[in-house]
Amino acid sequence: DGGITQSPKYLFRKEGQNVTLSCEQNLNHDAMYWYRQDPGQGLRLIYYSQIVNDFQKGDIAEGYSVSREKKESFPLTVTSAQKNPTAFYLCASSIAGGDAGDEQFFGPGTRLTVL
Amino acid sequence: GESVGLHLPTLSVQEGDNSIINCAYSNSASDYFIWYKQESGKGPQFIIDIRSNMDKRQGQRVTVLLNKTVKHLSLQIAATQPGDSAVYFCAEGGGYNKLIFGAGTRLAVHP
User: Nearest 10 degrees: CA dihedral of B92, B77, B58, B56?
Assistant: First the structure.
């Protein structure tokens, strides 16, 4: 059963703590993405990776970090430097990271709440 | 997430009616467009896509229309059902598979 999994579904963090969100895909996709979703706004790109061991900053990368050591995994760390981390985080993947034109498949999301 | 539908424009329709959801995109150079459906608390699901060399594409109960002259995209849902209630948003291909997403429209289907 192929797809993208994100864990946990809900995550609570105290201010000043770093937290890592998991994203795994077994679709054999080269490209993976992290988005942030806030009420009333479109998805905003945090980081993306077109291939293993490579990743690029998206539009709102400040306060976040990623790694892409394995093709199937793209974890996102929300650091204490992120001033407004409470949001719904979505991970996605697509077949290739080349020219636009590949559907992105999304995971179920992780809701992060900073207490 | 659960609150993604807040503060969004809402389209209310009766069950069985046709729905039309509109989207204005920003980049005249975009050549790929997608419509996604997002139910409360879930990730977005692909509905239909269209490339810029087409004006219309049909799927099962859904049709996407692309007007490049005015940079407008629409999603038509035929015979809308309660299960169609969700937030719908369009995305345009921004190069190197980066997608630019609209804020979305909430579709509410009433019996």
Answer: -50
CA distance, residue A35 to nearest chain B CA (Å):
10
Q: Residue B84 has which token pair?
A: 């169609």
CA atoms within 13 A on the CB side of A34: 30
Please state the separation of Cα B108 from the chain's center in Å. Answer: 14
Task: Check B8 against A40: CB less than 8 A apart.
Answer: yes
Per residue in A49-101, pLDDT (tens digit) is 999 999 999 999 999 999 999 999 999 999 998 989 999 999 999 987 555 45
Query: Cβ of B96 and A101 within 8 Å?
Result: no
pLDDT band at A1 (very low <50, low <70, confident <90, very high): low
Chain B residues with beta carbon closer than 8 angstroms to that of A4: 43
Of A6, A31, A40, the CB nearest to B97: A31
**pLDDT tens digits, one per residue of A29-62:** 999 999 999 988 889 999 999 999 999 999 999 9
| C-alpha span between B101 and B99 (Å, rounded) | 6
- Token pair recorded at residue A25: 């895909």
Q: Is the pLDDT of residue B110 over 80?
A: yes
Distance CA B106, CA A63 (A): 30
Beta carbons of B31 and A101 less than 8 Å apart: yes
For residue B42, give both structure tokens: 């879930």
CB contact under 8 A, A96 and B6: no
Chain B CB contacts of A100 below 8 Å: 30-32, 93-99
